[in-house]
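Hi U.,

Before I forget, here's the chain from the pilot set. I'm dumping it here mostly so it's searchable later in email.
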Amino acid sequence: MRIVVGMSGGVDSSVAAHLLLEQGHEVIGLFMRNWVDESVTINNACPWVDDANDAMLVASHLGIPFQVIDLSEAYRERIVEHMFAEYKAGRTPNPDVLCNREIKFDLFRSAALQLGASAIATGHYCRRSTSQDGVHHLLAGRDANKDQSYFLCQVSQDQLADAIFPLGELEKPRVREIAEAAGLPNASKKDSQGLCFVGKVKLPTFLRQRLDVQKGPIVEIPADVVLAAGGGIGHEPHNFDAATGTIVGEHPGAHFFTIGQRRGLHVGGKALPLFVIGKNMATNTLFVGEGPEHPGLMRAGLTIAPDDMHWVNPGAAPAEGVPMPVLSRIRYRQPLFRATLTRNATHWALAFDAAHSGIAAGQFAAIHDLETGEEILGSGVISDGGL
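Structure:
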């Protein structure tokens, strides 16, 4: 087949291209230039030029055609603007999940098909299978430490239909070995960390290019107050105020923080670290609790708006009012946990078998099959950390 590989300049996508070439496919390398807006990139810290050069060197080494496609305008509109809007509203988006849905498996895929490709390939550590009924299944990668299926939890059946994941059955050390044996020029290149367009800049610094500093109080809520108010387990402490706890510091803006965050508070003198347990965006108040076991961090479940629920495998969706036992995760690399998903008249409810912490609105809750947990059935945008 003619297969277009999304080459990022990293070792994973490079090995993916190498493996497909070894299998006898016609391979074309395509680099996505997603972020070039220097007006909000500090000190030109985004290394996309270096990455593009690395991808070009690999393509030259493999002897395959190579192109650079400029998707920066669409990336700004669909990913970056959305990210700023979400943070401004007090939610915590996941640009990596959106990038796969909106850019890699949409615009990049369209460009690949225009080049006559029969399939597209990426360096993701995940797998795809197709059952006899024609349904495509998104499966976890064999390497549990590198499994990236969570980042593809919003893709559709159509997007999966012509997707190939050459690294799905491999573990990372083996990928490095293949890269070295093939003499790839980037075989020893370190894995990238964080958002590509942020580069080496810390996320709060990047956000301040568009979001104003709005100083507000940091209010510590004692554990017994949370429990007495019936909050914590199952509810975000929106009803708390400065009088409920103690003002222990000042923050630069509640929109810069997320539920469960412990860094960046700059409040000392505590036996245990402080964690963000809630935010009141109307009053620009940040609520914190001491220690990772603080009841204000814990939630019994979460809700998802009807339009924000997406099924990778549409046939898996339960009927309204029918509880569906599932496995789930709300963060990349988080161990799967048992929960029950129910479609109600006004929302989807995901009730946890045991309370979990760090439930942040705007993040994605991935829904896995109960039997093995290998298949991502669907996902939804968390609208509230409570039921």
